[in-house]
Design goal:
This is Phosphoribosyltransferase domain-containing protein 1-like. InterPro entries: HGPRT, PRTase-like. This protein is of the alpha+beta class and 76 residues long. It has 2 helices and 4 strands, in the order H-E-E-E-E-H. The two termini are 28 Å apart.
Length: 76
């Protein structure tokens, strides 16, 4: 996101705001925080609502955590 914002700033927009449906709590975070956040979630692998795991679960109308059994079953 920092690289994208840097690229956009070259065009000198009046304002840039970032919105994110999900923000993970993770120690690897670079410190970037969006201006608007829907939900802060733990550092788990989530699927659904256009988020997939190996092309599966993208069409779910909700977001959920995929467990290790699910990852094993649908791995490539």
């Amino acid at each position: 996101m920092k690289a994208l914002l840097s690229s956009i700033e070259k065009y000198k927009p009046n304002m840039i705001k970032v919105a994110s449906l999900l923000v993970k709590r993770t120690p690897r975070s670079d410190g970037f925080r969006p201006d608007y956040t829907g939900f802060e979630i733990p550092n788990l692998f989530v699927v659904g609502y256009a988020l997939d795991y190996n092309e599966y679960f993208r069409d779910l109308n909700h977001i959920c955590v995929i467990n290790e059994h699910g990852k094993e079953k649908y791995r490539v």
